[in-house]
């Protein structure tokens, strides 16, 4: 073997064995197709520093037993962590047990519905980050034990009074930030900051609509509680019981008590807004509490700037403000010797514009990219600290040496290893540090050829000119070949040679470097300029400015065009081939991102060059400094070589005027949210321009009314869905989301923050320029159950009636969309897409082109039969669109130009015929802005219509998965009929029948059975009989079967029914059992009670109600003897919750006979169905099934069956057939409602 090859291979093997492991990402999807189907398995395979990405799905609880794992869910609306079907894995542990370590764990983007979240309780876990998660109805408290936890952007709601504490925090320096705590009822306190949490920050949270005794229990010292909102709570906002805390810039509205001082000294409370039943209460009056700022604050009030100490806003303060500075002339004296606020505010603190100073929590934070790679690895660090730091100290190796004081530096790691990074930020109020352990992983690079580069000094001068060349190549170099005049001859093989140019001229220099792995050359054209002795440079090049347009913003997710303005030749000679280089600070200080050439510039001339930076920056948040250099290689002799460059910095931001699906990280196209394929149609009605309300003009409320003629639903139709589209613009509500009270037909559908309410909210904003944070939005509500075909009204009010706080939003006219079924109409396929996308076109003002200012609406979820389509209509809704504005594209074709004809106050649809552009799949509309005035693309609705088809009569047929076997024999029947039947009636031959399409039936007795199927549609019916089709033999041996009696049950919403859990026989008797009964859909029904037989002397079961319960008992008196048959083990009471069906299953953990031997029974399944039943006309209650046979004989719902029910049936036969499930009222079991059903009801009485 070649010796050199052997050495290289040996080195590679050593690197694999000894080099640091590179962090990797594992993928989890419960439907398969990726690395793992469970989070637990991914954690077991991962190493410290790895990332686990979890796709849409439902997952069991898990344990983290290694440090620095990042577990990211696809979204808290897509990823749910919950117990498995039998109640196992009902906890999350970070880590699992004593001695384990889960330090540095990151949990993100999940709906955590397990009952026992333990963070740091059983082992070591500090520096944990939990963000963007939902905690809903967590049974136990959320434990957090360990230092430096960050808990941010989470939603915690619906904690019950059985939990004394919601979140139990024990550890120093916590950050609890930007969370939403709603509808919690903890008996002691919801967020409990224990005494160990010294130096914690609680900032930007919302505590609302809760009945918890204390929302925030502050038992720690030296904490900052700032920028929180406590609103509409029946208990206490904050309870303080320690020293030296700062409570500032919080808002208290409609709480029973704002702050309760239990104990504690030297707490400072200022710049808060109080508007509660009681502002301040106490248990022990402290010696000192400060009620004003520690220093004077500079602020602007009513247009004038002042500097003063500042206190709080008290609603019952009635002092004067003689000098108009917003500070009361007289002190506010608190009751009960609690102290005096010497600087009470005349208005809530939001009305004061603070300049420079202010109590903002300082929190260090940063990101890095990339975080792994081969040495040398250059990493860009981005500061994301909050609290307005004024200095930055970066320690990139955590060795105690400060490596950079820039805000957003880059650093090159030259050696392999795992590096811990420490950022310390500071301002006048203090400092804070963020330490990320092993966050940078650098690997040993594989052998590779060198990269040639060099410099020279000087590069110009009189002949003879001696030039010193310095090699600056990267990599290992074993040989050098210098060609100083690029004539093909090697002039030197030294590393750093000198060379004398004797002759006047311009010279190109070529350096070739090589090693065992290859070679590379660097050629610098016209690099050396040699002039005649005595020649003096007479020209000078300079740059006036570097301009980043528009608005000095660098746009993310696209290339940026940079203007190098005022390139001037101050001399007398014309200069040629002038290079202009552009450098970006986040790319390289030495390698330009792009260059341009000025072919000629006369003496005294000035020109401008536009240079494109092709760098794509996926995320906003960083800052880029552009530096332009003219003649970067100093090829042109100048009188001043020091004025050839100019720089300008700009923040990286998303461009909100462009289509957000392409130009905003995490942004969405206008995607399909609802699809319908039905006989029927869609109606939509948007209120007129007069319904538009400007900011601050609708404090007394807005009422929008639709008459029956606005939405004419044809007689005989069934309402499928009704959506209310509420659009707004120019929102400036504090926090970025409107707070509103919305009422539809007298029903409150929203009361508070739209982002956490009952609707689906979509938003967009320009994100830069003069209107950077003026939000546009669309909120969608399902109002199907509140809609009236005779007319509807929609009332909008500012939350709490406060127009000053919550009227800072303009209201577009609202839209109602009705989807209905009607057998007299043609078939329609309806796609409803939803989003909000602000669009504007102006290269100079917005940095946009027509193509970029396009919102795309892909229509998905159904295939279209294009050859059969009769009409295809697009309803394209847009706000502020027109007149003569916007182009409509469909599948890349221009359908219409300047098409929208509304104005700045409209939000209605423009209607387009798109039939000729349709594809079977992959259809996409493009809504393209055309003016700088801008438009707001909203919901897009595509309606595809087919002609009526003649319906042929069905032809019945069916099959079965088994046709013979021992009793009990479960057979799955499959309908194979043709002709599109709409109803089915099965006669199984043993006296049982059902009206399902594909039923399952259990034959319990020996015999030969004939099976009949009748199918029907609007064109007729057909009958298929299979004689002697099922043969059931007597079971051999002593098979034991567990089953439900009845096998199938139905129960109305909020009603209950009893189901027996039965065993067929016990050949050797029964001593006891431990069983689990599970309902597979917890939304449909739940088990609310268990009744045991009299022989069950000792019993135990799960807490009720529940959908997966265990039952455990013992036959203490040996009542169940050998050969006992049809033994009832328990009676389950099941309550209906909402329309649907759920399967019942039985799991056997233990069942023993009288000799202690295990019984292994066959377990059959059951089914519970909850129909959607309404009271009959003129009745108060919905019908009931009194005997559990699936037939609802109690038509009046009064709990008894009598002649009154027969009369009600007789008078409402047509109504029942149109509005109720026919099978629940088909007493003669023929698949329809008829007079013979009335006769059968007489017979029942």
From TrEMBL:
A GO term for molecular function: calcium ion binding
One Pfam family hit: PKD_4
PKD domain mapped to chain residues: 362-441, 450-535, 954-1037
InterPro entries in UniProt: CARDB, DUF3344, EF_hand_dom, Ig-like_fold, NosD_dom, Para_beta_helix_rpt-2, PbH1, Pectin_lyas_fold
Database matches in PROSITE patterns: EF_HAND_2, PKD
Boundaries of every EF-hand domain copy: 1225-1245
GO biological process, one term: peptide metabolic process
One cellular component (GO) term of this entry: extracellular space
Name this protein carries in UniProt: Cell surface protein
